[in-house]
Amino acid sequence: MKPAIIYTSYTGTTHAVAQKIHDACGGDLIEVKSWDLLSRLFMYFVRRSPDMQVRDDGVPPMAIDLSGYDLVVIGTPVWMGKPTMAIQKTIAALTGCNGKPVILFATCGEDPGTTLPVLSGEVKTKGMTVAGRFSLSQKEIADGAVIRDLIANVQGFGGGQ
User: Fold this and answer.
1) How wide is the angle at C-alpha 32 spanned by C-alphas 10 and 51, nearest 5°?
2) Is 25 exposed, middle or buried (0-12, 13-18, 19+ CB in 10 A)?
3) pLDDT at position 106, please?
4) pLDDT at residue number 29
5) How many Å apart are CA 25 and CA 58, to the nearest integer?
6) What are the CA-CA distances from residue 137 to residues 60, 82, 125 (Å)?
7) What is the pTM of this model?
8) Residue 136 and residue 149: Cα distance in Å, rounded?
9) Distance between CA atoms of 127 and 40, rounded to whole angstroms?
């Protein structure tokens, strides 16, 4: 089984989680990034924060054909209690996803807000079935238990090298 791991990451936190999933389960790692006004403002302010590094990787949100995948994993940081526009635009443009199971994850400081319910609704409108939802706070990421649970969920669908 080959999962598609689609995510956006501006400071590297979500990227690190997606990379761990990829290292344990294989598949294709697809990073997307939006350059809309909100994203540009966020990047401007984060770049001026002495403790934060900003990733410049990623392709613009685009149509991704999921017909060749058995499982989809989608990850996003939480912005103001919601998923990023880059992930929302990417989900809207997905093709070949009807009937596919999807595992969602959100990285956040403490509270994911409505991020996971919003993503769940969006993937369901594309005909996908939510097979798992994970919220990872900074503390949980440092602990590693939730990441292990997330990876186990992906591997439960046959993802693994």
Assistant:
1) 5
2) buried
3) 97
4) 94
5) 21
6) 26, 14, 27
7) 0.85
8) 11
9) 31
pLDDT digits (tens, 9 = 90+) for 86-121: 899 899 999 999 999 999 999 998 899 999 999 999
Q: Which residue has the tokens 């809309």?
A: 36
Element (DSSP H or E) covering residue 30: strand 28-31
Q: ∠ at Cα 57 (131, 8), nearest 5°?
A: 25
Domains along the chain? 3-155 (3.40.50.360)
Contact indicator for 57, 103 with CB cutoff of 8 Å: no
Q: Which segments of the chain have a pLDDT < 50? A: 47-48, 52, 54-55, 161
What is the pLDDT, as a whole number, of residue 52?
A: 47
